[in-house]
Design brief:
Blueprint (H helix, E strand, L loop, with lengths): L3 E2 L8 E2 L11 H6 L12 E6 L9 H14 L4 E6 L3 H13 L3 H23 L4 E3 L8 H6 L3 E5 L21 H12 L3 E6 L20 E3 H7 L8 H7 L7 E6 L5 H6 L6 E4 L10 H4 L7
Parallel strand pairs: 3-4, 3-7, 4-6, 5-6, 7-9, 8-10
Antiparallel strand pairs: 1-2, 9-10
Helix pairs in contact: 3-4, 7-8
Length: 296
């Protein structure tokens, strides 16, 4: 328990705690903040992120079969859906760049694009319990999941005008892949699955370079060390995995192939599996690496 430490006359009072030092810039004080375990708030939930350009922009033939599979999987698994932004986001960025809008302003308008896709997917899932999850309403998420609903959210993180500078680029660095990863990390989710239009991560973009080879598994550090010219997910996701407390495993699957989502939710190593640890020994499965929960 904290206690009050009274200083001499004219001096400050302090609350006794491990952070009672005046400066939160002190490296020793900050290092002491990592002594306690981080809880998994919703360890049975699965975060499924639907790609914008890869799935949404393909229209009915891609998105409807995938959503039908989500509905079937929801009978056994708790699912939160993230919806990507797609080509309209790129068009928005193009206009912003031409107008000289700063990075923070670009992040602000990008969030509105994601909301449009989210509402479209909610309309398709409405009869199956699809509900829009606003970021301010995460506190009601446990109730919605217990009721069998399918919450949907845009992955764009709400940095808005406070989006950090992006180095030698103007486009915001923290986009929908990172946003959904952070949802998984904060909730302590059972799994984090990115649904794209390729079989997983390749050494080169297979759409433009047929020589690109599938990388079925690897660690985040190994992939960063490869310094690939292009990635199917945002590079900042891999960088953030190195410091993650809960989400230490992500999976990338092809949403155009029926049944892969169900297999990924069951723990099968379909697509590409990325972890923060060294490759597992032979004889173990990805299901062994999934956080255990009383329900899935």
């Amino acid at each position: 328990m904290t206690g009050i430490i009274k200083g001499a006359a004219g001096r400050r009072m302090h609350m006794r705690s491990s952070l009672m030092r005046e400066s939160l810039m002190d490296k020793t004080v900050m290092a002491a903040s990592d002594k306690h375990a981080v809880i998994a708030m919703l360890p049975d939930v699965n975060i499924v992120s639907i790609g914008g350009c890869s799935i949404m922009d393909r229209g009915k033939n891609a998105i409807v079969p995938l959503l039908d599979e989500v509905v079937r999987c929801r009978r056994e698994h708790q699912i939160v859906l993230g919806v990507g932004l797609g080509a309209r986001l790129r068009h928005t960025y193009h206009i912003c760049l031409d107008l000289g809008i700063p990075t923070g302003g670009m992040a602000m308008v990008a969030g509105a694009v994601g909301e449009q896709n989210r509402y479209m997917v909610q309309a398709l899932l409405a009869k199956h319990g699809g509900v829009v999850l606003h970021k301010d309403h995460v506190v009601v998420l446990p109730l919605w999941l217990e009721a069998g609903l399918i919450p949907l959210m845009t992955g764009m993180p709400p940095y808005h005008y406070w989006e950090p500078p992006s180095g030698n680029q103007r486009v915001p660095m923290y986009r929908e892949d990172f946003g959904m990863f952070m949802v998984s990390e904060t909730l302590g989710a059972r799994s984090m699955i990115f649904v794209k239009d390729e079989d997983g991560l390749h050494t080169a973009d297979p759409k433009t370079d047929p020589s690109g080879k599938l990388i079925p598994s690897g660690t985040a550090q190994e992939l960063l060390d490869m310094n690939l010219p292009d990635l199917i997910i945002e590079r900042v996701v891999l960088e953030s995995m190195l410091y993650a407390r809960n989400t230490r495993r992500i999976q990338i699957i092809n949403g155009l192939k029926p049944g892969l989502l169900a297999r990924a939710l069951a723990g099968e190593p379909v697509g590409t599996v990325i972890t923060t640890d060294k490759p597992r020994a032979e004889g173990t499965s990805d299901a062994d690496a999934l956080p255990k929960g009383s329900r899935s």
